Structure formats: C-alpha cells, structure tokens
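ping. complex inputs:
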Amino acid sequence: MGVATAWVSIIVLLPVAALAYQAKLGGWDSFWTAITSPDAVAALKLTLGVAFVLVVINAVFGTLIAWMLVRDSFPGLGVINTMIDLPFALPTIVAGLVLLILYGPGSPIGVNIAFTRTAVLVALLFETLPFVVRSVQPVLMELDREMEEAAASLGAPPFAVFRRVVLPTLAPSILSGCGLAFAKAIGEFGSVSLISGNLPFSTQVMSVLIYGQIESDNVAGAAALSIALLVIALIVLLLIGVAQRWGMRHEDAA
Amino acid sequence: MAISVEHVTKRFGDFVAVDDVSLEIEGGSLTALLGPSGSGKSTLLRVIAGLEVPDTGTVALLGNDVTRVPAHRRGIGFVFQHYAAFKHMTVAKNIAFGLEVRKRSKSEIKDRVAELIELVHLDGLGDRYPSQLSGGQRQRMALARALAVEPEVLLLDEPFGALDARVRKDLRDWLRRLHDEVHVTTVIVTHDQEEAMEVADRVVVMQSGRIEQEGDPVELYEHPVNKFVMGFIGPVSHLGDAMVRPHDIQIMLSPNGTTLPAVVERIVRLGFEVRVNLELDSGERLTAQITRDELDDLAIEQGASVFVRPRKLQEFSNAT
Amino acid sequence: MTARRWTVRLLALGYLSALLFIPVAMIAVRTFQNGIGPVWTAITDPNTVHALWLTLQITLIAVPLNTIFGICAAIAIVRYDFRGKALLNAFIALPFALSPVVVGLCLILTYGRTGWFGADLANQGIQVIFALPGMVLATIFVSLPFVAREVIPVLREIGTEQEQAAATLGASSAQTFFRVTLPAIRWGVVYGVVLTTARSIGEYGAVAVVSGRIIGVTETATIHVNTAYQSFDKVGAYSTALVLAVTALSTVLIMNLVNTRRGEG
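pong. complex structure:
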C-alpha cells in the first residue's frame, strides 16, 4: 500500500501539483489574460465545438456498431470486433498519418480535407471510436431479451421496443462512453496535429496551442490553458459519473 | 375455437422441440400445458404467441391464420416466468405500456391503470419501481400489464416458477378466481401437476415435443392412456408391470385370497394423511395412502405383517 | 426484419470502413508503393534504428514498474480501507483526463531548468528533461492506470476466501500472494500489461514535449515518424509508421486472445 501511494505521488501527484503551482504563481490576472487571448478563445471554441459534434456522432454510430457486434452474425464479425480496439493500440501520430494518406493531398479517392476543421473531427472520431462501442457492448449482451419480447407481446413494433425499452437501459453506458470520448477528444494531440495543419484561429486545437506555448517558452501561459482544459475534462467526467449513478437507480439490489 | 394449432413443428438445430402438434383450445377456457422440462410446452406457447416461428404448421387465433403475423400484432397477452418487468419504469408505467403504444388518451390510460392496480391488489404501489416489489407483487404487475390491453388470449409461461411455495399457492388460487371473473381464454405452461390439476379446466400433457393426452383433470387422473401420463399426473406404485395409486391400495390384517403378503417398513404421518411404506415378499416396494382413522383401526406398527389388495390396477399395452 | 438488419450492417460497416479499415490498410499500400527496397533502407537508417531502440528501452523500463505498481495499488484499494483511498483512485484515473501535452508540461515544471527540482538536479549533473529519464517518466505517467484498472475488478470478484483458506493452511503473506493471489489475477495482469505496453510504445505528445526531439538522440519511434514526415521523407515516415502499425495490430490480436482465455477462466 505504501508502495502504491509513493509511486503515485512521485509520478502523478508531484508534476500535477507543479502545474497548479505554476498557474497560481502568475496570479489570477495573467491566468485570465492567457485564457482570454484571441487564439486561446478560438482554439477553445474549436476544441469544444468539435468535441460536442463528436459526442453525438459517437453516441449514434457507437451504439449502432455495438448492436451489430452483439445481435448480428456473419463470417468475419469476430475479426471486426477485434479491430475495434485498434485506435486504442495505434500510436496517435500513426493514426494521423494513416488518415492523411486517405483523406489528404494525394488521396487515392480524391478527398482532401487536410487543413480543415473536418479533418480535426475525422481524426478525433478515429481516436474515440472504441469508447462508446466497448461501453455499450457488455450492457447489450446482458440485456434481458424477455423485456423486448414482453414489449412486443404488448403490441410495440420493433422501433418502439428499441426506443422505449432498450435505449433507456443502454443510456448510462452510452453516456459513460461519450464522457470518455469527450475527455480524450479535447486533449488529443498527435493525430490532430498532423492532419489539421494547426492553422491558428482556424484549425488549431487547445492541445496544439499549449504545445506552441511550451515551445516558445511561455510556460505560464501554457500552464493556464492546461488548467482550463483539465477543469473542463474533470467537470465532464464528474457529470457523467452522476448521470450513470442516476441511470442505475432502478437496478435490482440482487 | 379461440386457438387452433395444426401440425406445428419447431426445431432448434438438431433438437426437435415441438413435433407435429395439433391442438384446439376453446374460448374462455383455462388450459394447462403440463410436462417435464424439454417437453416442448414452453416452445408451443411461444409459437402461439408469435415469439417463435414454427418450421411447419399453422396457428390460428379466433379463426384468423396468424402464422406469419409478428407477435406485436396478435393481440395476445404474455406473462414470463421471470416477470420481464421494465426496470426503468414505475409499476403504473409498466401497466400502461400497452395502452401507450396504442396511443390511447391520457385519461383513458389513467383510469384503466387504476382499475387494474385495484384488480391485482397493488393499491398504493403504482409509483414504485419493480426492484422495490416482492416476486409475487412483480408477477401480479406483469399480469395486470398483460391484461391492460384486453387481449383475446392470455398466455402464461411457468408464471409462478420463480416464487416461494407459499406465494405460489396463493397466486394459483388468485389466478383461478381472476379467470372466473374475467373469462379470458388462458393457457398456462407448468411442470407442476398439482398446479395444473388445481387451476385448469383442461390439461394437455406433453413429453418430448408431443401431446400424450388431453382432457379435464379428473379424466386424466382416472383414465390415463399410458404409463407416462399416469406417473406424471399423480403418485404411483408399481406392481409388476402394472401401476396403482397409493390410495387404491387396501391394507388388511388377514388374507382373503386376492391379497398379497407384505411387511410394513415405515409409517409416515402427515396430519390427516398417512403413508405406509410396504415391502412385498417379491421384494417390490409399495407406498399406500390411508387416513388417520384407518391407521387407528388397523393398529399396525413398523415391522408388522399385513396383506395388501390393490383396488384398481392400471395396465398398459405398450411401455411408454 | 432483414431490411433492418441490412440497414444496420450497411451503416455500421460503412462507417467503420471509411474511418478505420481502409485508412489502416492504406499504410501498407503506400509504404510499399515503390517496392521493398526504399522501405528497407528507411528502416535500417541509423536514426530510425535508434528511434526504435529508444522506444523499446523506455517500454522495458516503464512496463514492469507500472505492473508492480498496478498490482500493489489494486490490492491496496480492494483489500484495505484507508483514508485517502478515494484520492488514490482519482489520481490513478488522472492520466486519462490529461492531454499528453499537458503531461509533458507538468514534467517540465517539475524537473525542468526553471522547475521545482531543476536547480538541484542541474547541480547534481542529472538531466531529466531533454533526456532519457524525462521520457521514461512521461511514458510511465501516461501508462500508469492500465494494470491497476484491469486487476481491480478481478481482485474484487475473486473475493478473499481463497486467501483466507491459504492462511488457515499455514501460508505466510508472501506465500499466499505468490501461490494464490497472483495466479488468480493473472489474466487481468496480462491484459493490463498488454495495454500498458501498447500505450508506452505508442505515446507521442507527452514524450515529444519532454524530449526536445533531438534527432538520433531523444527521438522515439513515434516522434521519428513526425520528424520524417515534416522533412518530406515520406518513405521514412511511412516505413516507421508501418512498423508501429504492425506492432499495434499484434497487440490487438493478443488482447483478443487474452480475452478469450479470460472467458474460459
């Protein structure tokens, strides 16, 4: 137990404390200036904007993919199931490169979205693909089929069964996956940096802006932006935790 | 005929769950599908409900061929062994489900739900969630839910199987009384012969996907067509190749030419009923059932030598 | 019913193909566009080799350390009650919430020249930032949670009965740990190790910030991909990326294998 706390303290606690200290060091004024500077505001808008769109797309497609993986069956489905984890394992920079090949200049299908906001979205969708799928899958597998049959026997056509019975049961897991996807998306660096071109005020996300600040030795500014990003991530994760517990309130004690 | 099943077969892979079964069920009756696990009774019920599609054969409800009609358009009510409650909805919402799906008016739904809650004695529990109810309460809710849309046919799949013995008995009585009041054509699947005999107008005994016999409880008890039915419907003792009911074994103190000698192995008193375990000279064992008064008259004890005479023996031409 | 099934299939597979399958397949196509020769040259280039070797070194340090930590933390969290348990849990989860770039920043603020320990370390002649130690610390930070997170639920599920039985049979704590506990959690540990390794190999942002990206000295494989691409060495970039992609693919296949084994207990 002592080992654990010591390790965590050195590795995680210390550096994060240093971050908080640094931000505090400059005082509230410089903190405020840093996060309200025009490029910071632009980066924040872009980061959060894309993240929200991403969450919606992930919620829909993630659930759809999980549905197919659990309820369908055809040769090759097992392979596809395994491949879903690829974005977890693939280095972010390689992901960026890979998307650039297909959707950038020199694209074999003539699609070039490099240096656009769409590129940011696509890169992040790639990176966050597994989150909702893996979150929903186990819940879907455990779902009591008899509830769906009961709904059908009571006269509900298939889509009504999905909307009124299945979806409410899946909601907590979808939210959970979305929360994780959101947190990952707002901090993602490697994949986005390559394909978006990092044009300030246009396709520059927060993580890239922070990177730039570090490179130009503006550590204080970088620290301020980092704290802002961290706070947002923590708030979202907290809300997700609350939503999950609320969604589980009707579960049987057994 | 409210329900008409003709030559239905259903396979799951290599396993034949229902094997060329035909059955007619009268409107307003309470029929039990009785049999051991694997007999196909649940599958048959689900085929009638539309939750399974038969490989061959037809199903007709009230004269209409519904074989290709999906479950949600058959106008049936279904009650599951493990309740299948909508966990995320209150009791009231659960019961209202069928009505909401049919887009009835809010006031109509409210009235009907209140009516049903009273009918199944769940007064005051409308705003609770299923996880807050006992097993018996959940099943009553499931019944109310199924009845809400006034189905033509009510199908129950081992509805009391997951409940305690005491609750099971209570709900059994209650179901019969409900049926007498509401008169919906009801089919109940059970593996408990006591349940079937107590509750149903007609009993259909099934084994290995086929119907062994159907009739009213008395007929099945008194005139079983084969060994399986006799053995399943009630307790039996074997005498050579024949079968005899325990209460048809008469114990006497002296022989009279038609009796067999036996030794009393054990006497078990169960209140009014007394069971006497006997061993014949041949080594065969019988269990006789007599009343407490008869035991007092005989005044026998463990180890006593007596004579037994079967009052009514059943012999069957082929072994089943 | 079949219409619905096909709609789901089409949408799901279409999305997956456009986003995942085709792009990943493309890396192989593009890399070998001009034949194997250029690819081989690129991979055997001294800078590339150094980068791959550096990645390996870092991984070989980070993974075992995090594994030991993960097991200790899991045992502490599941089996004991102590003040600050919630905090420990939170800090283990923290690496997930932090952007890799921010992680790098934190480390610079702690160990950099102007950081908390910067002056002290400089006096001792120890360089953390822009050197291997910093890169190792960054990698350990980001891959910290995996073993702990995988082992905690397993530990919870097996309960204390087996360990108690071992104690009644006379086993010491250490014996119980190695003969009873560890084997019981082995698949959780293996899965966690696989994830930790994948993360260590694949980390980019945090290491990029902390290392200074000095070619041939503090470049990991992932950083090398970027450097090569930025200097228009497409073949170099693609080749290294391919090596990493193949590694990632193997990781995913191993993950799947382990999961199947777990299912069988």
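Residues 165-182 of chain B form the longest helix (18 residues).
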